[in-house]
Amino acid sequence: MEDLFELMTEKGGDAEKETRVRIGIRVKVSGLETPCAVTRACGSYDDLGREVLGIKNALDLLLTRAEKIFQGSRPGFASDPRQPAEEIWVALSGMNEKVFAEAFNSLEEGKRREVAEYVLTHCNVFSGNGRIFSERYDEESALIG
What we know:
The chain is an alpha+beta fold. The protein has helices at 45-71, 85-93, 97-106, 109-122, 128-136; strands at 5-12, 18-29, 32-37, 137-138, 143-144. The radius of gyration is 17 Å and the shape is globular.
């Protein structure tokens, strides 16, 4: 398989001295090609690691959805029942809004409630998927509407 992803570096931060890194995907159209960023610009290895984890989880969800299509049933989010709520949230928070809600709602109810408790007590609910979660989470059904 051809290398699809690449590191994109840029200068940023104070006085343009800080190097920031993003993951990009090379897009080819009609003989022209350009890198397109698929992550935010990261100033540390740990930040980039979280972005990569988000990509991995989004791809895992797509693979799970494809498997369900081939089997003729509903897509879901693959998680280990023993996986801590914090790890599940890290995976979910890296997804786009549509996939995020679908993945969360596909968790079993007890795990949804566990993740919800974690998010509402330990996370920033004013930006990103935390904001979406706090706005759309229904405590009674433990689902995101």
